[in-house]
Specification:
By secondary structure, this protein is α+β, with helices and mostly antiparallel strands. It is built from 28 helices and 36 strands. α1 (6-20) crosses α25 (781-790) and α22 (712-733) packs parallel to α24. The structure holds one RNA strand.
Length: 875
RNA sequence: GCGAGCGUGGCGAAACCUGGUAGACGCAACGGACUUAAAAUCCGUUUCCCGAAAGGGAGUGCGGGUUCAAUUCCCGCCGCUCGCACCA
């Protein structure tokens, strides 16, 4: 008997699969009546090497892809590379290697690693986003979006990363620091290319309701991100302004000093509770007042000093300053309110100004209490008494009935809001409006390694789109990274080009696109990856889209998914894509990470797991033999070195063990900890399966073979095997891979237990082994294939139809019924399935243990739940 | 602060959707077989407490509720994790 040799077996089967081309998706016209299934894992950034942590995501997708194929689907399961981005430029700067070269080398290495995992991927569709054949289509899409009014330019405050010398998206700023460089982010004003995501704000929000196969968590995060709130804008007329403002603010001479102040509110019903207005520190009016009021200038400086980190915001006390301006209440000309500037008002939301209604808003109340501003309650909570209800330090922010509020008195909140808006409109002091937290998407990046933006700046004609026939605008290869900033802008010749309109001398745009653009439509390109004339064929996209199963990390819950949803809508409205819903991903699964202990040497360096070993129960540094400090269990990452290299692991244990392990034990959406003992378990399982397969005389019975007469234990194995089909099928369908793994162990244990050499036992074992090979084939495709062949089956197990449970065997005809007395289990009986209640009741009452507990008591009630349980209530 | 999720043996977990034998399966641990020995493999035990055993009692973060019956449903607390964060 030979040991299972994965080093021979795994490459052998991969070569045979490749030769037979079983992983290729069929063209729509060749698929006949097969339904399509598009299975996709978020494509990787080619950072260098893959570690076992990365493998989980691809393995999960692969299980689904293989399962669908076995169930008769025409499967599209592609792979590509999210290949633009900063790390390549960092490598160029650090090591003098060209970003393209570095990226291509990484792709080559990672492709081989992914292949060695045995993933059923259609490699004929592979591409990288840095291929000019890919990004030229992206430039065409950009031009189409531009024409469609989805692209515009605007001078914007941007987050500037002083280390990477680039603009960062809001979401690339973490705790006020650049997400890659970790440097504190500065604010600069730059002319930016912007995608009009907000054009679809409502649709993007409403459609979330239809994404019923997305995790609730992700849907919630998306809708929070869009952050729609309905309310009113209100214009507050100035009643009194300081003389300096009346004179017209000489320094800047702006006109806004006398304009009404616009405020956004979701609660116009509380207008009668207003006691002040508050402006953001960088509101234009605040700045104007600061020009002649040193104390206001000092306030602005102080407010600006406060960090933007979470901790800072939480601790920040509210403070403000009276600007000496008074405004008229929209409902009562004679009622004047003071205008303050306050640090808690955001300039970036609404109009950067609020009205304070302290009784109905905690922030306003804190502020009013601090500065002795007046307040009166205007919303009466349900059941409260208007005569006694007071507000002191706790605002009442919920709905109630309005009082102390003139014509709004007696109206419930929602009606009062409508009524207040109606009145504002009538008085021309306001109107209904909707605010979003969602902003348009600034896509300009001042970097080299990205998709060039196809635009030309002409002194005469302004900003002009590149003609479509002039695409692609390819990146120049000869770039230098010797000084900070954008190498494209420094390039001696690249940017000089004639203007497409007037023919005069002009300059190319040197900004490149945010890499989130690259990943916003790659899934469409996979449907038609070789098309040279257009991004993708409409019909091909119609056939394959939407992606039936998307698998990826929760870290992309907001941006990548939102941008992809935006892109599909944009492409649809440009007439390039037939996808009425605009929804690219029908079903989304967010998988947990692979985590691992971290190790630090005595000198404080991170250590790779293989640089340590456990001796006499103590983990030591192999280099120094000194004990290592074992740190937290964290997501595998290169920086903490808590990674297990995939190549070495596959060499030692095989791809199947890695695949099996990352899906065992923990539910897929939860993190799984990589441990040596877990590896051992998976390894032992492979050996055990092979030992059983090899011990079995081939061939195993075919699917339609008639079973000989057999003993009850052999029959029990057959039943268990057929029930395993039911369970594993269901478990894969519902992403409960860890349970599918457990069921497989159960089946193997049962096969090993049946020892008989009679025809019935041999048949039952052979059948169970055949079923086992099929059930584990999505998880451990190499072992399954080798076993399938060894059992004398023909063709690939990978393409064999998924097994069907024989209902007669899977069904249970007798059931074990627990008998409870007063809710406690006291015995059990065997009963035939669906046995009559009276019969079960009698058997239960006759059970000796049950009788013992009933002694001296009267049976009050007997509850028989058919095929489930019997409960006897006695006293 | 707001929102969401989670809390079950020594550990990872199952059962929760649809209330009905809590702890499937794996790991670890312990005992045994095989072996000169070890590894590997195989067999067995393993929630806790009392008990030699038979058996009994307790038990799914804590407190309450609904029910013949609650890990499962409801309410309140505690703890952990994640997301958002002065969004008017």
């Amino acid at each position: 008997m030979s040991r299972y040799n994965h080093r021979e077996v795994e490459p052998k089967w991969r070569a045979r699969w490749a030769e037979a081309g079983i992983d290729r998706a069929l063209a729509p016209d060749k698929a006949k009546d097969k339904p399509k299934a598009y299975v996709l894992e978020m494509f990787p950034y080619p950072s260098g090497r893959i570690h076992v942590g990365h493998s989980r995501n691809y393995t999960m997708g692969d299980v689904i892809a293989r399962f669908r194929r076995a169930n008769g689907y025409n499967v599209l399961h592609p792979m590509g590379w999210d290949a633009f981005g900063l790390p390549a430029e960092n490598a160029a700067m650090e090591r003098g290697v060209h970003p393209g070269e570095w990226t291509r080398a990484n792709i080559a290495a990672m492709r081989e690693q992914l292949k060695s995992l045995g993933l059923a991927i259609d490699w004929s569709r592979e591409f990288a986003t840095c291929d000019v054949e890919y990004y030229k289509h992206q430039q065409a899409i950009f031009l189409a979006f531009w024409k469609q009014g989805l692209v515009y330019r605007k001078k914007q405050k941007v987050n500037w990363d002083p280390v990477d010398n680039t603009v960062l998206a809001n979401e690339q700023v973490v705790d006020g620091k650049g997400w890659r460089s970790g440097a504190p982010v500065e604010t600069r004003e730059l002319e930016q290319w912007i995608f009009k995501v907000t054009a679809y704000a409502d649709d993007l929000l409403d459609a979330i309701g239809g994404l019923d196969k997305w995790p609730d968590k992700v849907r919630l995060m998306q809708s929070n991100w869009i952050g729609k709130s309905q309310g009113a804008k209100i214009w507050w007329e100035l009643a009194h302004v300081p003389d300096e403002l009346k004179a017209g603010a000489p320094a800047t001479g702006q006109s806004h000093a006398r304009d009404p102040i616009e405020v956004f509110t979701t609660r116009p019903d509380t207008l009668f509770g207003a006691s002040f207005l508050a402006l953001a520190p960088d509101h234009p009016l605040t700045k104007t007042v600061a020009e002649f009021r040193p104390d206001v200038a000092a306030f602005i400086a102080k407010a600006g000093q406060l960090g933007t980190s979470e901790a800072d915001i939480e601790k920040a006390e509210k403070f403000g300053i009276d600007l000496g301006i008074r405004v008229k209440h929209p409902f009562d000309e004679s009622w004047e309110l003071p205008v303050w500037a306050a640090n808690f008002v955001l300039s970036t939301y609404g109009s950067g100004a609020i009205f304070g209604s302290p009784a109905g808003d905690q922030r306003d109340l804190d502020f009013a209490n601090k500065y002795n501003l007046p307040f009166k309650p205007v919303v009466l909570p349900a059941g409260a008494d208007a005569a006694t209800h007071t507000i002191t330090t706790e605002a009442f922010t919920e709905d109630g009935v309005i009082y102390n509020s003139g014509f709004l008195d007696g109206l419930p909140t929602q009606q009062a809001i409508a009524r207040a808006i109606e009145e504002l409109v009538k008085l021309k002091r306001g109107e209904a409006t909707t605010q979003y937290r969602l902003r348009d998407w600034g896509v300009s990046r001042q970097r080299y390694w990205g998709c060039p933006i196809p635009a030309i700046h002409c002194a005469k004609c302004g900003v002009v789109p590149v003609a479509e026939k002039d695409l692609p605008i390819a990146l120049p290869d000869d770039v230098k990274f010797d000084k900070p900033g954008n190498p494209l802008a420094h390039h001696p010749t690249w940017k000089h080009t004639p203007c497409p309109q007037c023919g005069g001398q002009a300059e190319r745009e040197t900004d490149t696109l945010d890499t989130f653009v690259d990943s916003s439509w790659y899934f469409l390109r996979f449907t038609d990856p070789q098309d040279a004339s257009k991004p993708f064929d409409k019909q091909m996209a119609s056939y394959w889209m939407p992606v039936n199963q998307y698998v990826g990390g929760i870290e992309h819950a907001v941006l990548h998914l939102l941008y992809s949803r935006f892109f599909c809508r944009g492409l649809r409205d440009c007439g390039m894509l037939d996808l009425p819903s605009g929804e690219p991903f029908a079903s989304l699964f967010t998988q947990g990470m692979v985590v691992h202990e971290t190790y630090k040497s005595a000198s404080g360096q991170w250590l790779l797991p293989e640089e340590t070993d456990v001796r006499d129960g103590v983990r030591v540094d192999l280099a120094t033999s000194k004990p290592v400090q074992t740190g937290d269990i964290e997501k595998m990452s290169k920086s903490k070195k808590n990674v297990v290299d995939l190549d070495a692991f596959i060499q030692d244990f095989g791809a199947d063990v890695a695949r099996w392990f990352v899906l065992s034990d923990s539910p897929p959406e939860r993190d799984v900890e990589w441990t040596a003992s877990g590896v051992k378990g998976a390894w032992g399982f492979v050996q055990r399966v092979w030992t059983l397969v090899e011990a079995h005389p081939q061939p195993a019975p075919k699917t339609d073979a008639t079973a000989p007469a057999m003993e009850s234990d052999a029959h029990a194995l057959r039943q268990l095997a057929h029930r395993a089909i039911q369970s594993v099928t269901d478990d894969i369908e519902t992403f409960r891979f860890n349970v599918a793994v457990a069921r497989s162990y159960e089946l193997v244990n049962a096969i090993a237990k049946l020892k008989g050499a009679d025809a019935g036992s041999v048949f039952a074992r052979g059948e169970a082994l055949r079923i086992l090979a099929q059930l584990i084939s999505p998880f451990m495709p190499h072992l399954a294939e080798e076993s399938w062949e060894r059992l004398g089956m023909t063709g690939f197990v990978a393409t064999a139809p998924w097994p069907k449970a024989d209902p007669a065997l899977a069904a249970r005809n007798t059931v074990t019924l627990p008998i409870q007395v007063n809710g406690k289990k006291r015995g059990e009986i065997e009963a035939s399935k669906g046995a009559a209640e009276a019969e079960v009741r009698e058997a239960a009452l006759a059970h000796p243990d049950v009788r013992r507990f009933l002694e001296g008591q009267t049976v009050r009630k007997v509850i028989v739940v058919t095929d489930r349980i019997v409960n006897i209530v006695a006293a």
